[in-house]
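Hi everyone,

Forwarding the result from last night's run.
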Amino acid sequence: MTSQSHDCIRVRGARQNNLRALDLDIPLRQLVVVTGVSGSGKSSLVFDTVYAEGQRRYVETFSPYARQFLDRMDKPQVDRIEGIPPAIAIDQTNPVRTSRSTVGTMTELNDHLKLLYARAARLHCRGCGRPVRRDTPESIAEDLRSRAATGGDPRLIVTFPVAVPANFDETEVLGLLGSQGYTRIHGREPGRLEVVQDRFRAGAADRSRVLEAVEAALRVGRGRVNVYGEGGQAWRYSSDLHCADCDIHYRDPTPSLFSFNSPLGACETCRGFGRVIGVDYGLVVPDAAKTLRGGAIRPWQTESYRECQDDLEKFARKRGIPLDVPWRDLTDEQRRWVIDGEGPWERKVWYGAKRFFAWLETKAYKMHIRVLLSKYRSYTTCGACAGARLKPEALLWRLGAVNEAGPGLSIHDLMLQPVERASEFFGRLALPAPLDEAADLLLGEIRARLDFLVRVGLGYLTLDRQSRTLSGGEVQRINLTTALGTSLTNTLFVLDEPSIGLHPRDMRRVIEVMQRLRDNGNSLLVVEHDPQIMLAADRIVDLGPGPGEHGGRIVFNGTPAELAGGAGTLTADYLSGRRDAVHAAGHRGPPRPGDPSLVVRGATEHNLQDLDVEVPLGRLVCVTGVSGSGKSTLVQDVLHAALRRAKGMPTEAPGAHRELLGAEHIADVVMVDQTAIGRTTRSNPASYVGAFDAIRKRFAAEAVSIERGYTLGTFSFNSGNGRCPTCAGNGFEHVEMQFLSDVYLRCPDCDGKRYRPEILEVKLARGDGPARSIADVLEMTVSEAAEFFSGDREVLDCLEPLVAVGLEYLRLGQPVPTLSGGEAQRLKLAGHLAENRGHSPVFGPENRRMSPIFRGNLFLFDEPTTGLHFDDVARLLGAFKRLLDAGHSLVVIEHNLDVIRAADWILDLGPEGGERGGCLVTAGTPEQVMRCEASHTGHALVEYEAAQRRLLAKGARALPSPPAGSAAFRVADAASNAIVVHRAREHNLRDVDVAIPRDGMTVVTGVSGSGKSTLAFDIVFAEGQRRYLESLNAYARQFVQPSGRPDVDAIFGIPPTVAIEQRTSRGGRKSTVGTLTEVHHFLRLLYVKLGQQHCPDCRKPIEPQSMDAIAARLLREAKSRRIEFLAPLVVARKGLYTDLAKWAAGKGYEQLRVDGGMLPTSPWPRLDRFREHTIELPVGGVVVGARQERELRRLLQQALDYGKGVVHVLDRGKVRVYSTRRACPGCGRSFAEPDPRLFSYNSKHGWCESCFGTGVAIKGFDAEQTGEEIWWNEWFEGEAAPCGECEGQRLNPVALNVLFRGRSIAELAALPVDGARKFFDGLKLAGRDREIARDLLAEIRSRLTFLQDVGLGYITLDRAAPTLSGGEAQRIRLAAQLGSNLQGVCYVLDEPTIGLHPRDNAVLLDTLEKLGAKGNTLLVVEHDEDTIRRADHVIDLGPGAGALGGRVVGEGRIDDLIRAPESLTGRFLANPLPHPLEKRRPVHKADPALEVVRAGLHNLRKVNARIPVGRLTVITGVSGSGKSTLARDVLYANLRAHTGEGKRRRKGGAWFGCDDLRGVERVERVLEVDQTPIGKTPRSCPATYVGFWDDVRKLYAGTTESRVRGYGPGRFSFNTPGGRCDACEGQGVQTIEMSFLPNVKVLCDACGGRRFNAETLDVQHRGRSVGDVLAMSVDEAVEFFAAHPRIHHSLRLLQEVGLGYLTLGQQSPTLSGGEAQRIKLVTELARIRPQQDPRRAGKVAGTVYVLDEPTVGLHMADVEKLIRVLHRLVDAGHTVVVIEHNLDVIAEADWLIDLGPEGGSGGGRIVAQGVPEDVARLKAGSHTARVLAGFLRERAAPG
């Protein structure tokens, strides 16, 4: 498989927004720039079409639950897009609003730093500050020798501490010590003895003696040694991470310790936020100039708390605290007395402000108290961590050294450093060996990422800067470096103007980063207007020729050289210098002496360095400078806020500055920013500039309007009675489509015209043209309207600003939210021009001397050229000129060189960013700035003008060739065509290095437990998905919960990944083929939107009914009874509904009816947000009768208005629903609006009330058990009878009577896939229905097609999951995942051949090959020989399992594996298993057997099957042929009922699913050995399940120490209190909750995961505690318990079934299904004893074992072990029935039953039955026979 044919993204027929059926090929692995004038369709093409499709297809691969949080893009309007890789948008939006997100987390530097600190940092004791390190006998001996040498070689006493247990006295402990030879005690303390190990002089003693003494002391003293000299001084040592001097123990560092997003590292007080909310005493004392008597303590100045003020004054006089001194002049001690007080109020002393607020907290249940507290609360720095966010122990670890004597930097110290300084720190950092090599890649990654940030001009940011405070440009550049750091490949990166916010000096750096991304094998699609980036592109696509309707076409597609060389487009003209935007601005010259100006002095906010600037007025002033130089701080934080304050307008506190002069020269200050103009579709350009008011006046003045009484308001679509009541003036109907993009349809009543038909009869006539209605005028473009109203000066004056800013192509009624960013900004500018129309220039050149006082406005613009093309910039400068000519002043923050060149005055800040910025480099005209050597802006202007002159003179020849990516920027050569994993150590992997070829199929194989899934899923899949998910917002990520970073040094060349894992559960009875593939989800939506509802009683279509009909019915049916009218506001929806309660209270309603009970609207109680609520507004009640008819009608009308056409009537305690929209014309019954839940089997709104959505009658089941259907399979016996109420259709009558094309949803779901596909292919829809169903039908058809492709066309959509075979379920999962049609991703599959017959296996492999041919990478964990032989590359892990595995023992093609000496896979491929392994047991007709007679369950066709007793029987056949039905649902279920092991013992009566079952009297017991978990809690493990843990406990209870302490076997149980760890209750793990983060399970701190308390762990057997035994692998335990036959027997059995790698205490939830199945087999084998063999007693009886595909997850070597285990069971006299496709197992059978010949309705027959050799001789009808014949010939055992 090669990717050469997949070299471009093919877009065909793109019609999104204004695109004109555009066709385009976008080359992959290139930097492509899309440009064009504003509104030409750039964003429509790049973001709404290409990116939307790439992102949507990848998000499709996630679960339906995850997708609802992932902001999946809408499906674009395009015929087709082919060859698209997963897409990531790097735009300017910052979706993060949590303070947990910082620059460090966004760039993943925090992830790398926490790994580095965990690996390389040094610990410093919190007590003494000295470094803490582990002591070894060698280091202790060396230290003793050096200390002795300097101290005169004193006599030393080596001691160790021994704790005295609570249940022992000192005498008993001394006796135990004495028995071990320790008789000398150096010292005693309560509960502790200091025992002497040895005495010597270090200088004279042999080194071996010193080492021996220290080693013994460390062993007995549990890692602690104290050495005393003659003077009594003590030298303390510890082999743990323990400061011996301070006796403080520390934990080993883990990466999580250094993460404030982990419960292990986050400060426990602030939970990692760094701030806590509390009383802000700055708000309590807001004015420091006030005195205590004058009201300094603000909350005590109200009448409510006046007594506190009196108490303050009384106690202050007693204590001598001055009452008339300003607060600021009080001493710290006096202020502390006021705030902290002296004690509690009860003691009659001064209680202080703190206790006042503490008292208020106790009253916080009262609303007014909560309001009061909120006024004085704010976020303050956390006192526990001082804002560091981390636990104190994390800050004790330090890295490097600031100077010779310094201890280095903690991770928080590093976070406070600017990126530039952090980069310098790591550049100097040298780690001591052996850390230098181990951390080399980690350090390299950190240095590279910091360097990227510096390169893109962000060196001034600190790593702890909260991401929500970043500008759009900063966010985009950080995302760009993050994308580069992730090393993703085969990914489409879509960028939106990366030049925004970037000085020209920094542009080259950004270009280098983008080129490196391209060189890593990615594709870049960039919307851009900056000439530097355009000239560096590989290809430019120019859209146009104009904006809006005049755009949407490709006017140029080629290289930059071709564009500049003569393409006749607007872009080419500006790029080559043939046009220049600067001339549009005019020129006013530099300011003259005496001209008014604004002066800011002493600005020190952020990085401004005591800055003094003068801003001349009446000029275009441009503030520029490199990124981070302080531009926004100066203009927004200082100048804007200070001017607003000077004008008396509300504002936040201005940035720090000394003074502002000249504010009197301006009338107002206006900030024109980039925020959205309007959010509703009713906002439009005509209204924004005031033109619509003038136009409405003309219509209201027409004769028809005057005659009808129409006013100005009649022609408004925002209010009044002239607008269409159906769409409320929007002009369209909004159809919500849940998990599809919403559909907007023209309003059916007004046809999109917004007004009632009568209003449209009023028409304006102008000139000779036709008369126009108000709707016609709104459809006009600005230029068409200007022509229509050419003689109307008022209207023209309103429209003229739109023409001036270049928006003449917009329609007057175009909704504002559809405008591009550049269009919206220019519309704002047009609004300001419109406000100033008619104003004459008051400070123009001609009257400058006559008007000494300037009173225009000051307009502040922040990068107004964002999103603007060269031509749009020229129009913008023209609009600036008009504002200046009108007498205003402009200050513009800008990097665009055309705007800078056009400025009258430039303020250039710098010289660099961050702390090296904040100064005024130069101020002057563009010419003066160009002459300044220190100005980066000046250099950029010089270069820009020179480049323009060169291009104008030489054309394309002046362009240099595009720079290639530097060699240093390229990934390793191996990663150019492969996924490179370097030094993986996750789980049992041992520094594994592999290169997985891309665009091919790689199989990872190896024995069970060798690390296959760890490599494929925990490393490759987890990292590929995690890197992609990093591009999603934080809100989405908390639900998807990507895996943590795996323990691996580096991964290069990894594309986004998709996992297709095996699932062992079959699903509940509510899961169907339709729900598993999501076809049913789309069918539900189809029926909600297009279904025709019928009355379930009358079968008539429902229709609207009038209010009069409802009133008449109430008068007839409820006569003389009191009824209550309730308006339904919320029906069965989850939420808190606080705002709804406020609305109701505002309407005067004191109560709402919630879930049948009344609740007050104020205060509104907190509802359960996770429960569905129905909330009704109690409108009023009335006694029904003729006299009260008027009141009844009034209340009914009011309730219908509030309920939007629906009213609930409470009559005699019951609620009845009435609707004006949906009612039966026959019986009058009303119906609620359809909801997708109406058609859900899992919702009470839709399910049949008898069977609760299962479709079958299950006795004893109720609604409370819904969601637990999967467990019904465990105990439900026999054939399920269809539900009598719904006849198996699962839904209630209301749902079943909604019809689409004459069918109910149940009838459609009952069709097979082939039938459903035929139905939808023949479906023809038109008009509104076609628009609504467009995306729905595409989704349904694609899923049905893929089900057909994997051979499942025969399965019905309503087939229940439990009835599916393993092969069918696996292929359904594949169909659901692979239907997204992605390219360039890595699919990671977990044993896809599970449950597949060799015939079906070939079909699957063909499907996977097609998937790989699309340019995808396939990484398959597999043991199947056919799959291994068809792979392009094989990686074999081993050589053993667990600790004996984790290495690559073979890699390459099949021949390479065979040649690898350690490869077990290669050995089995070269020398496969011979068959039979054991002599086949004969089967005669007279032998006892179980006989199934006429089995007809599911698709079985009245088959007769014979299962010989005491034999190994294998049932096989193609997928869906009926194997599981015969073995599990018929044989096993009947035997279970017969033996009484089910719910009831069978006492005669019918058999389940068959006519008869003979021979059952020989069966004493039946057991299904399946793959369900062996336990559900961490306390369940192999040792307890198999049963030998009881013997282990008895063994430990029998040790001397246990007998001395009085411990029995119960002490060593982790399921009961006493000996287990109390902190984790014997689970070994604890669950830690985190705010806004998922709960985390971590090893228990108290026991370190060993499950027992310290006293229990003190008891040892052969030097190992009971906790150590649980941590042993089975292989280790076999040797350890060799002398204990009972324990050893069970352990050997575990070893023999290939589970030697499991630990004895491995938590059962972590075991795979195959491992659980083999543990169950071992449990059965452990019960067998030779003397119990029933056949030896001459009697045939025993247990029948039923196994469903036991080879799942087994390597060839493990299959051999399994076969021998099965033979042992049969040899012990039992009967074994195996459902299996594995040919090795089939060939070992004593008896073979082959079902078929096909699956589904084509199967259900026994096509062969007999010994394997007889079956293999069949010539036709059996797919098994065909493959088995060749297999037996190749594998025949010799002799």
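The first helix runs from residue 42 to 59.

Cheers,
N.
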